[in-house]
Design brief:
It is built from eight helices and nine strands. It is of the alpha+beta class. The protein has one domain. The strands form four sheets. It has a three-stranded antiparallel sheet, with no helix packed on it. A two-stranded parallel ribbon has the order 4-5. Strands 6-7 form a two-stranded antiparallel sheet. A hairpin with a 5-residue loop joins strand 1 and strand 2. The radius of gyration is 19 Å and the shape is globular. The termini are far apart.
């Protein structure tokens, strides 16, 4: 059974010959363990084109992985203590009091296969030797990186209207970016988010209806290319429990006033 067939069978619960495997390795681990780690990745079969791209050179690491203090294209400032290890955001482009949000300009990203590998395999096309997977879409994490962790949680708790505007603007940013990804030849796209720590949730799954609309609109937009699951502190839970019955419900939800969302 080839990799593409294996992944498709696993997604459809049709008994693949083994579970699909995707290497997900921080550059810092590769720098530290070198050939010993490469021997493991070479020995373990992988289904998402890990071996089809060269490693990203140190000088091309993005700001969140590059040692020191660096600013990314969103305007977030990252503090990275170890080369190749994901850092901590320490500066945020959207002020805690929102005073500068009216002047914020969203970046425009392209889509498609990169020249180098970062963290996991990435390839498009329809080759039998891999499942074509691209993109890396996060939502709740991106809100924190734009506005700050504490400020974002406080604004959700206080049901501030500005946090709904950020939600809507970030959703539109992602929908526009998804159009560029969907124009490429992929079988799947990455969607990831962390909404918890350990066994505790940072926010309640139904907090203000803030993310339910996002999940539904993204699923409709991509026509089922993603699994629609969210990860919370080690627990995988189906995010489709409150799925939309149709476009009418979506439109009604989108028209609700922020303080009335439940």
């Amino acid at each position: 059974m080839n990799s593409r067939e294996r992944v498709l069978r696993a997604i459809q619960f049709q008994k693949p010959d083994r579970p699909p495997i995707s290497h997900a390795i921080l550059p810092s681990a590769q720098y530290h363990y070198g050939d010993a780690l490469k021997q493991i990745t070479d020995a373990v079969p992988e289904d998402f084109a890990w071996g089809m791209l060269p490693d990203l050179p140190v000088e091309k690491l993005p700001p969140m992985y590059k040692e020191g203090i660096n600013r990314d294209e969103f305007g977030t400032v990252w503090h990275v203590t170890d080369q190749g290890r994901c850092g901590i955001p320490v500066g945020f482009p959207i002020a805690e009091n929102w005073e500068n949000y009216k002047d914020y300009r969203w970046p425009v990203f392209g889509a498609g296969v990169p020249k180098f590998r970062l963290y996991s395999g990435h390839m498009n096309g329809t080759g039998d030797g891999y499942y074509a997977r691209g993109g890396w879409i996060v939502f709740f994490e991106q809100m924190q990186q734009l506005h700050g962790f504490e400020a974002t949680l406080m604004d959700i708790a206080q049901d501030r209207p500005e946090i709904y505007r950020l939600r809507d603007d970030l959703l539109q940013f992602n929908l526009d970016w998804l159009d560029r990804w969907l124009a490429q030849e992929y079988q799947g796209l990455h969607f990831a988010d962390d909404c918890g720590r350990g066994g505790l949730r940072i926010i309640h799954v139904n907090a203000g209806g803030l993310f339910d609309l996002v999940a539904r609109l993204l699923r409709i937009h991509i026509c089922g290319i993603a699994s629609g699951r969210r990860h919370r502190g080690g627990n995988i839970q189906d995010a489709t429990d409150r799925r939309a019955d149709g476009a009418k419900e979506i439109a009604q939800t989108a028209r609700r006033q922020p303080n009335n969302e439940q």
